[in-house]
Amino acid sequence: MFHLRGGMVVAVESPGSPVAVMQDGAFAVAVGEVERCFVDESTDWPLPPVHAGVASNSLLSGTARRLDVLASLPFPLSPYRDRVVAVPGAESAALTARRREIVAHATGRRTARDLAFVLGRGLYPVTVEISLMLGGGLLEIAPPGTSFGFSNWGLTSLRPRAAATRTAGRGSDQAGSLPVRRRGESGRRSGIV
User: Which label site among 51, 169, 184, 190 has the fewest CB atoms less than 10 Å from its CB?
Assistant: First the structure.
């Protein structure tokens, strides 16, 4: 959400940016998706603190520069879509403290936006750092099985479990299978108490 006063941008709020910095908020909006756009001239909700603000051309040109930098990197990534995982051995490499934090939290289930929130840093600097780490072989884009599976929590995928349940539920009395209640049977007759 862009807040304007007197033709100047006085604040930018974005769910994609964990910090209250205008330029990072504008970057988060630019790399994300705009779901809707409207002008609200009401004063029913609290306005951000008044300060001099930034000219919209300046904010737009700064955001365009950031997008250009990101696009020029060897591994540009989508801060909202691409999930990253540390490559084996990355945690033992000689890393700066900032990179060690990223490696520690790069589980394959987090995007640059997620990592920016976890680390309490701006979206743009974290996205650039992750892109550089991808280029340096410290991180990689996580495969779908890592990104969306439950293996990181010690749980298995639901697909194999569903197949096993269908096989066990076909009336077989295999050891370890649960009794199956059929329509019209009481719980006691089918062994379910």
Answer: 184
pLDDT given for residue 156 in this prediction? 40
What are the strands of the beta sheet with 54-55, ordered from one edge?
A: 2-5, 8-12, 54-55
Domains of the chain, residue spans = 2-72, 83-147
Instruction: Describe the crossing of helices 123-135 and 22-31 by its angle, rounded to 10 degrees.
Output: 60
Name the average pLDDT for the chain: 75
Encode 89-139 in three state secondary structure: CHHHCCCCHHHHHHHHHCEEEEEHHHHHHHHCCCHHHHHHHHHHHHHCCCE
- For residue range 158-170, list pLDDT tens digits in order: 444 444 444 444 5
Token duo for residue 15: 């769910």
Check if the beta carbon of residue 31 is closer than 8 Å to that of residue 16: yes
The three-point CA angle 170-174-176 to 5° equals 110
pLDDT score of 152: 42
What average pLDDT does range 32-60 have in this prediction? 73
